[in-house]
Design a protein that fits this description.
A hairpin with an 8-residue loop joins strand 1 and strand 2. About 70% of the residues lie in helices and about 0% in strands. The chain is globular and about 70 Å long. It contains 20 helices and 2 strands.
C-alpha cells in the first residue's frame, strides 16, 4: 500500500506574541518621541503582518512627527494602492505641510466632518487666504470644546477684515484677551485694524510679558523665546510707526533684523516696514535687504518671494513688499529693472 502523500504545509500564522511585543515596543518609542525607531519597528510588524492597518498608521504618524513628510507621503501612496485603508487625512496633512494647498483641500473632499478634518481644512483655507470660509468652520467648531480654538478663530476674523466681530467672539468664548499671549496678540491686531493703536500698544506689551513668563516656565532658551515672540515685536514696532514715534520704530525694526531671531514672515515684514519708514534714504541698502526676500530665477521676468513667503504672508504684506521694491528701483533710476519687475508681478 502506497504511503499517504504528505499534506502541503500551511503558511504559518503570524506569531501573536511577537506582534504584541513589537506593538508594545512601538508604543514605547512613540511615547518617547523616538520616531526613527518607531518607523523601524513598524516595518518589522509589516514584515510579519503585511497590510496591518495599525502598523501602517503608526509608521505614517512617526514619519510626520519626524518631519519626513516626503517619505510619509510616499508610504501613504504605496499602501493606498495595495490595501483599502483610507489615508485621506494624513495625505491632506502632508500636502498641507508641503504647501500644496489646493491638492490638500481636494484630498479632504467627501470626508466625514469630524473635528480633525475640519481643523485641518480651516488651516488650509487660512493659508489659501479664504478667510470667510475658514471662519465659518471655526463657528461650526465653537461648541466642540477644543482647547485654544478661540486663538485661531480670532486670527481668522482679523485676517478676514472682521475685527469688529472680535469682541463678540471673545464674549461668546468667555475668555479674557490676556488668557494667553497668542490671544492677546490676535486681539491687539484687531485693535490695530480698528485704528485703536494706543490700546493695541498696551495689549501687545501685555502679550510680550505673558509670553516671556509662559515660555520661561517651559524652559525655552532665550533665543527660542525671542523667535516665538517675534510677531509681537514686529507689531509693537508697527504701532510706534503709526503713532509717529519713528525713531523708536526704526530701532525696533533694526533690532529684529540685526538679531535675525525671527521667523521668516516676521523678518520680511520688518524689512519691508523699515524700508517704508526710511523712504528714499539709503536706497542701495534697502534693495539689498529686499533681495534677501526674493527667489532668484533663471528667467529675467521671473519673480517669486523666497522660502514660501508668498504663502506665509498676507496679500497686503506681499503688496507692501512689491510697492517698496518698485519705489526703491525708481529712486535708484533703474528703469529697466522697474519694467521687468512690473511685467513679472502683473
Amino acid at each position: 500500500m502506497a504511503p499517504k502523500a504528505k499534506e502541503k504545509s500551511k503558511p504559518a500564522a503570524a506569531p501573536a506574541v511577537a506582534i504584541e511585543e513589537l506593538f508594545t515596543s512601538l508604543d514605547r518609542h512613540i511615547q518617547r518621541s523616538e520616531f526613527d525607531r518607531a518607523v523601524r519597528v513598524s516595518d518589522q510588524v509589516l514584515t510579519i503582518a503585511p497590510g496591518d492597518e495599525d502598523a501602517i498608521r503608526c509608521k505614517v504618524v512617526a514619519l510626520i512627527k519626524n518631519d519626513d513628510i516626503e517619505e510619509a507621503l510616499s508610504t501613504i501612496q504605496e499602501f493606498s494602492k495595495r490595501y483599502s485603508v483610507d489615508f485621506s487625512f494624513f495625505k491632506a496633512y502632508c500636502l498641507y505641510r508641503q504647501s500644496r494647498l489646493d491638492e490638500a483641500l481636494e484630498s479632504l473632499k467627501g470626508q466625514e466632518e469630524n473635528v480633525a478634518n475640519m481643523l485641518l481644512q480651516s488651516q488650509i483655507l487660512y493659508r489659501l487666504g479664504k478667510m470667510d470660509a475658514c471662519v465659518d468652520i471655526y463657528q461650526k467648531l465653537h461648541k466642540s470644546k477644543i482647547d485654544s480654538l478661540e486663538i485661531n478663530f480670532i486670527a481668522g476674523l482679523v485676517s478676514a477684515g472682521r475685527a469688529s466681530q472680535v469682541q463678540g467672539a471673545i464674549d461668546s468664548f468667555r475668555v479674557k484677551p490676556t488668557s494667553s499671549f497668542e490671544l492677546a496678540y490676535n486681539v491687539a491686531c484687531s485693535l490695530i485694524q480698528r485704528n485703536m493703536h494706543k490700546d493695541a500698544d498696551q495689549l501687545l506689551l501685555s502679550a510680550r510679558r505673558i509670553g516671556q513668563e509662559t515660555l520661561m516656565e517651559e524652559n525655552l532658551a532665550d533665543a527660542d523665546i525671542e523667535l516665538e515672540l517675534a510677531p509681537i515685536a514686529v507689531q509693537l514696532a508697527y504701532v510706534q510707526q503709526i503713532l509717529g514715534n519713528t525713531q523708536e520704530a526704526h530701532e525696533l525694526y533694526s533690532s529684529i533684523i540685526k538679531k535675525n531671531l525671527a521667523d521668516e514672515s516676521s523678518l520680511a515684514v520688518s524689512i519691508s516696514n523699515l524700508i517704508a519708514l526710511k523712504g528714499p534714504k539709503d536706497v542701495s541698502d534697502g534693495l539689498r535687504k529686499l533681495d534677501k526676500l526674493i527667489e532668484k530665477g533663471d528667467e529675467p521676468l521671473m519673480f517669486q518671494l523666497a522660502r514660501g513667503l508668498d504663502i506665509k504672508l498676507s496679500q497686503k504684506q506681499r503688496e507692501a513688499i512689491y510697492v517698496n521694491r518698485l519705489l526703491l528701483l525708481l529712486h535708484a533710476n533703474k528703469l529697466d529693472q522697474v519694467l521687468h519687475f512690473v511685467l513679472a508681478i502683473f
